Amino acid sequence: MLSDEEEDEEVSSEEMVSSDHGEEELNCPNQSEFKVHHRSRDVPQQSDEIQHPFNHHPNPPCLPNDLECEAKHEDNGGSLEKRDLARLQYQTNNDLKNGGGTMNHDPSPSTALAACLKKPENHPDKLKSILIKRRGNKSNKNVSFRNILADFVEPVPVNHVNDEECANVLDSYKELCEKLRVRPCQKLVDQLEGLQDSTLKLDTIDLKGTRLDPSHCEALEAVLRVLRAQTLNIEQTQLDDDGAISVFEMIEYYEPITRLIVANNVRLGVRAWLALARLLKRFHRLEYLDVRRTSLDESTMPLLCRVLKLNCTLRVLHLEDNHLSGILTRNLVWGLRTNTLLQDLYLGHNKLTPEDAKLLGSLLVTNRTIRLLDLRNNRLQDTGILFLSSALEEQHAGLQLITVWCNQITANSMSALARALAFHTTLEGVN
What we know:
It is a single chain. Helices cover about 45% and strands about 5% of the residues. The chain is an alpha/beta fold and about 425 residues long.
């Protein structure tokens, strides 16, 4: 049993302890911070090892590369922010683990940085120089791009070509082939070697049967910009869209020819026909066009017919062996109905039927400028000849020669054809 004085002392001591706890709770608004504060007192300080909250984390988070070497040097005190300092400490620890971190006479940037990070406030200038050095190592990686326009030559109109370029057209062609890394066309080289420098004119630039890829077509610019010729023959050269576009644009710009042969090139697509239509519309010296067997179809035939309707300067048009029966013949008739310049039209080997002959007959009634109509090797039959004979009787004048052999014709249609010859005033022959 305690005496009354001892009981009073015990109660007073309990009140003092409770009052002490109350003061601490009032001074710490967050109970968890209070506990962390007391727990951190029990952990011994390790001065020899760099402390970082990520050091003992089982899976430390990845840090962005763009923030790995950024140190914010403030104007007032020049101190590093805590967040950047933590990032630098974390990355430096990784560098030391991967590559070793012993100090020597020539310390690596990671080792030197680790030494500065122990007491960053004592080494602000040295820390900044190390960071600049680390950034400089990355800035030494330069990226360079090849100048793809270095060998580009601005096209020069033929009126501005000097005499020296005219005399060395063969050398210019070989030099351009060397730049484009293609072999010069031997057939063209032979023609240029026999060329007289005084005239610089050829009757025909003949490349028939020579394979022309886009690079070979680009090399032709050295010749077409200087040389004048009557005809450019690129028949059966395996032209594709890119090569054909290059050739057509050169002809449009330099105007070196008046006759163009593009026959037997079945790889021409819509892009090539668009370029050809643009050439026919803008180039007013082209009079002859041969597009035999050139993949004309329902998507490309309207491109040609629209230009014909605009009354381009063509006088002769070869369309043989393009399978123009049906809708393609209808498009052609629509394009030529108002054309007043075309004189010779070749439509042989197109499998034309009597219905196609009826459409061509309607064309002859309205178009009186066509002098020659070649319809050989088709399927007109007697019915088709009757349609054409009736159209010739109605035309009276205009057509001079019509060719209709190999069309499955018999004697039944000859009387109607003879009557058309009697009524027509300008028709000179029927083959």
